[in-house]
Amino acid sequence: MPGVDFSYVDTWLFDLDNTLYPPSSGYILAIEARIQDYFVRLTGLSPDEAWAVQKRYLDAYGSAAPGLIEHHDADPHDFLRDVHDVPLDLLTPDPALRLALQRLPGRRLVFTNGSEWHAERVLERLGIADLFDEVFHTEAAGLIAKPDPRAFDALIAAHAVTPASTAFFEDRAVNLAPAAALGMTTVLVGEHAAASTEPFVQHRTDALTDFLNAAQVKDPG
Q: Both 10 and 53 in a single domain?
């Protein structure tokens, strides 16, 4: 069966963590453990209490870094460097995903709440860094995180993104809401995607590579 008609798409926008690699890798769990340790050191709270604070910031701001700026005398850049300093051996290159990305005509961009350093090393490890034209990271957004609409505005301004011809792939449904409001085509990625009922989620897949391979895309000629 033919896949989704994306023949109008000329900008392919991808989240990074848990989207371009699977949660089963354990990589994001290693990052979350470092976040918990950081908050324990910062606040002096127990691990469970510190984790609750971090999750509260995630829900309120989309990322812990804006919460650090708002509520603590902490250097967000130090935080980002610390929590992303995770060994890359949990990640492995995915040749099939690389081929699926290569067939997409137009620009390919990464839009992440992670740091520039984190995005660069993860994409290199996955063997797909050369396939992306740009990475829009949290520093480029002024440490404003998805789903804050201001992060999307900054992305659009920085890279002349036209929402109507952009497809955005994300593992967190909440981050797709502002994208849909702007007119982007939204794709929820992950094992729980099929259960999503949010009206701003237009497409769902638990297998990104297969979804991209099946998509009907613009003739590059």
A: no
Q: What percent of the chain has pLDDT over 70?
A: 99
- Flag whether 14 is in a domain: yes
The percentage of residues in the chain with a pLDDT greater than 90, rounded to a whole number, is 77
Residues 168 and 61 reside in one and the same domain: no
Mean pLDDT of 108-127: 96
**Cβ neighbours of 172 (radius 10 Å):** 19
**Is 88 within a domain?**
no
Domain that holds residue 56: 27-83
pLDDT of 1 > 70? The answer is no
Residues 97, 135, single domain; the answer is yes
What pLDDT, in 10s, does the model give residues 155-203? 999 999 999 999 999 999 999 999 999 999 999 999 999 999 999 999 9
Distant-in-sequence contacts of 124-128, Cβ < 8 A, 24+ apart:
125/88, 125/91, 125/93, 126/20, 126/21, 126/91, 126/92, 126/93, 126/94, 126/97, 127/93, 127/94, 127/95, 127/98, 128/20, 128/93, 128/94, 128/97, 128/98, 128/101
Residue from 81, 171, 89, 169 nearest 125 by CA: 89
The CATH number given to whatever domain includes residue 136 is 3.40.50.1000
Cα distance between residue 221 and residue 217, in whole Å = 11
E-strand stretches of the chain: 5-6, 11-14, 107-111, 134-136, 166-170, 185-189, 203-205, 216-217
Indicate whether 202 and 134 sit together in one domain. yes
Q: Name the domain count of the chain.
A: 2
